[in-house]
């Protein structure tokens, strides 16, 4: 390490966010442009270069974190970029979107604030693009083998890039009109501007990857026909079958799934629409679900000019510190976190009745009621105990002109017919079954990412893409030198 006492002399300092009043008026990323590089070398110097770096274990990609921390501390950006890209195809995505389980596993985090690993990663990735350290890497020769990748989220793109660089001819099929999956239409612009995505797509095109948009395999192209045209198929469609909320009044107008709402707001940013048909402007909005997708809806509704926004979380409000008995280091703890969207809601007081920022904790929806025209007007809730059972006498009513359900996803969407046409076996929870080599029961068909693993983090998605690429490469050639960071059975470090 560059400074053996860095972790003792330098306090943790994160990438500063723009003032709330300024950033809610636009869709740009929430961070102060250019404010990361002046502080990041000192922050990287806080890395202890510990003997057993548990940050490696916490990250499924196996990122070489102490190595590139040291290189950033010495301002050797090219070498840092080489180390970072050795394990991660898209660090500018993870540096913005990942909740950083690596920081929870940082040894320094046992009794001090962790190293700002996520910020260091983002700084390296952005500097690499600025300095031209990430040119296209087309293969020296082609293998003569062809692969179809279905789905263009982080798993599909990682698999496609790895297989293209290995010399295979790869085509990515995407049902939407643009490449990117949920990164394109699910992640708001203020969390990751889509220029970062476009840049990688252009790099992949230059390397030889082909893209087929507006093509739903199973509906627009029969799955069996696609399978016959390619030597191997990778299914990376994600887990897009959203969970429902079966309570009275669910059929009222104005109650929508989060993934019906967020894509329209993203299309406004893309220039496809002037105003979203589901805009929250002037409406009382209630978001049911306490996760990241709910927070994305919150930040979006605030920018659209909602009259009020409240987010319901069925779990009790977590504490500010790790519970060492229930969630010991280095597991990822459930603690109170203030995302950019929650910070905005707190300062703007979007939900005066909420417990903290815009959130009502330990709250469960009982029913919806509406007006004579069938439009939702109220959400009725009740407080719940630790077993999520209603607490008598705690019923409340919130005004609601727009309700957004952000309850997560149960598995891949089967409406297109892809799974049925290929005769794929499913797990009891609805995900695609596969063996230890990522292969499904259909010959030559592999499954990776949320479609097979279930809803997970972007780092797990990229790790799955890299691992399935190695499995497909071995299937096609009999061996593979591609890295395989995880197995299908690997799971995050949790209690």
Write the layout of secondary structure elements.
Blueprint: H1 6-9, H2 20-23, H3 37-44, H4 54-58, H5 65-73, H6 77-85, H7 91-97, H8 101-104, H9 117-131, E1 146-150, H10 154-165, E2 169-173, H11 182-185, H12 195-207, E3 210-212, H13 223-229, E4 232-235, E5 241-242, E6 255-257, H14 258-270, E7 284-288, H15 292-304, E8 308-313, H16 340-348, E9 359-361, E10 363-370, E11 376-383, E12 396-399, E13 402-405, E14 409-411, H17 418-422, E15 445-447, H18 450-453, H19 458-477
Helix pairs in contact: 3-5, 3-9, 5-6, 5-9, 6-9, 7-9, 10-19, 14-15, 15-16
Pathway: Amino-acid biosynthesis
EC number: 1.4.1.13
Keywords: Amino-acid biosynthesis, Glutamate biosynthesis, Iron, Iron-sulfur, Metal-binding, Oxidoreductase
CATH H-level homologous superfamily name of the largest domain: FAD/NAD(P)-binding domain
Helix proportion: 25-40%
Mean pLDDT, to the nearest integer, reads 96
The shape, in one word, is globular
User: Total helix count?
Assistant: 19
Question: Would you state the CATH class of the largest domain?
Answer: Alpha Beta
Our measurement of the CA-to-CA distance between the termini, rounded to an integer number of angstroms, reads 32 Å
| Cα gyration radius (Å) | 23 Å
Overall structural domain count: 3
Largest sheet: 5 strands, parallel
């Amino acid at each position: 390490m560059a400074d053996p006492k860095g972790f003792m002399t330098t306090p943790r300092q994160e990438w500063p966010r723009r003032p709330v009043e300024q950033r809610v008026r636009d869709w740009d990323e929430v961070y102060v442009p250019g404010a990361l590089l002046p502080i990041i070398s000192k922050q990287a110097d806080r890395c202890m270069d510990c003997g057993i770096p548990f940050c490696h274990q916490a990250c499924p990609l196996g990122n070489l974190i102490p190595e590139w921390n040291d290189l950033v501390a010495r301002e050797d950006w090219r070498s840092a970029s080489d180390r970072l890209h050795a394990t991660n195809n898209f660090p500018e995505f993870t540096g913005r979107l990942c909740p950083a389980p690596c920081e929870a596993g940082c040894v320094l985090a046992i009794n001090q604030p962790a190293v700002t690993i996520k910020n260091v990663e983002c700084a390296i990735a952005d500097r690499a693009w600025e300095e031209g350290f990430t040119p296209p890497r087309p293969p020296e020769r082609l293998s003569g083998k062809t692969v179809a990748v279905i789905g263009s989220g982080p798993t599909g793109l990682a698999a496609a890039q790895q297989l293209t660089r290995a010399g295979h001819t790869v085509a990515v099929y995407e049902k939407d009109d643009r490449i990117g999956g949920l990164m394109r239409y699910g992640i708001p612009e203020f969390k990751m501007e889509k220029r970062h995505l476009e840049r990688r797509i252009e790099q992949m095109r230059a390397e030889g990857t082909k893209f087929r948009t507006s093509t739903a395999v199973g509906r627009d192209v029969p799955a069996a026909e696609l399978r016959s045209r390619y030597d191997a198929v990778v299914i990376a469609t994600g887990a897009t079958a959203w969970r429902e909320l079966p309570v009275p009044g669910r059929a009222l107008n104005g109650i929508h799934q989060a993934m019906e709402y967020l894509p329209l707001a993203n299309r406004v940013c893309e220039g496809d629409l002037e105003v979203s048909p589901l805009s929250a402007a002037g409406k009382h909005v209630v978001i049911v679900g306490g996760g990241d997708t709910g927070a994305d809806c919150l930040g979006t509704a605030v920018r659209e000019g909602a009259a009020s926004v409240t987010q319901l979380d069925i779990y009790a409000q977590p504490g500010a510190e790790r519970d060492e008995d229930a969630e010991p280091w280095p597991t990822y703890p459930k603690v109170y976190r203030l995302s950019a969207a929650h910070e905005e809601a707190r300062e703007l007081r979007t939900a005066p009745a909420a417990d903290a920022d815009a959130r009502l904790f330990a709250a469960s929806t009982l029913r919806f009621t509406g007006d004579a025209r069938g439009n939702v007007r109220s959400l009725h809730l009740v407080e719940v105990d630790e077993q999520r059972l209603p607490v008598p006498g705690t019923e409340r009513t919130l005004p609601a002109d727009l309700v957004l359900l952000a309850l997560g996803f149960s598995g891949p969407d089967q409406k297109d017919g892809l799974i049925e046409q290929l005769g794929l076996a499913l797990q009891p929870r609805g995900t695609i079954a596969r063996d230890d080599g990522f292969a499904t029961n259909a010959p030559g068909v592999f499954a990776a990412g949320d479609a097979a693993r279930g809803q997970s983090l972007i780092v797990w998605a990229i790790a799955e893409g890299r691992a399935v690429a190695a499995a497909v490469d071995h299937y096609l050639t009999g061996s593979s030198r591609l890295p395989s960071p995880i197995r299908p059975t690997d799971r995050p470090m949790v209690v």
